[in-house]
Amino acid sequence: MGELLREIGMIARALDSISNVEFKELELTKGQYIYLVRICENPGIIQEKLAELILVDRTTASRSIQKLEKAGFIEKRSDIVNKKIKKLYATAKGQATCPVILQEHAYSKGVALAGLSEQEQAQLLELTERVRENIEREWDFVKKGGTRHYLKE
Questions:
Q1: Is it the case that residue 153 has pLDDT exceeding 70?
Q2: Which residue among 48, 66, 69, 114 is least packed, with the fewest CB closer than 10 Å?
């Protein structure tokens, strides 16, 4: 069973590498496509919620958001009530790019799930979601300053 997380990691890294190569033509750099799609899916999302959605720290999210804004994919707008709150929206360029990203995602999904029945795909999704939920709880715990005790004394 120790190989499971290695397999998941290899899949994630391979898909990310493919996307980074293919999206270079779109002027998207490492991993920015994830942020752009989530902003397109959640217009007006704030940076902190976006970071939580993607499971990255605020500093990492901030860097990617700044790069996307500088490249013209997204824009920050002040909240109508509280001007200090900045909401994120895809620009026309960002909106035009999202369908290309989603097409690549659908293609990669087809390749990844080739040969699996619908039942197997559903089972894989259910089990993977459970694994993610377990890890997400740990991520949240550590992010909030918790220390995991895994070393034997």
A1: no
A2: 114
In the sheet that holds 45-46, the strands lie side by side as 45-46, 86-90, 74-78
The pTM assigned to this predicted structure is 0.84
Q: How does residue 114 score in pLDDT terms, banded at 50, 70 and 90?
A: very high
User: Where are the domains positioned within the chain?
Assistant: 3-112, 116-146
Alpha carbon distance 6, 15 (integer Å): 14
The total of other beta-carbon atoms located within 10 Å of residue 37's CB is: 19
pLDDT tier at 75 (50, 70, 90 boundaries)? very high
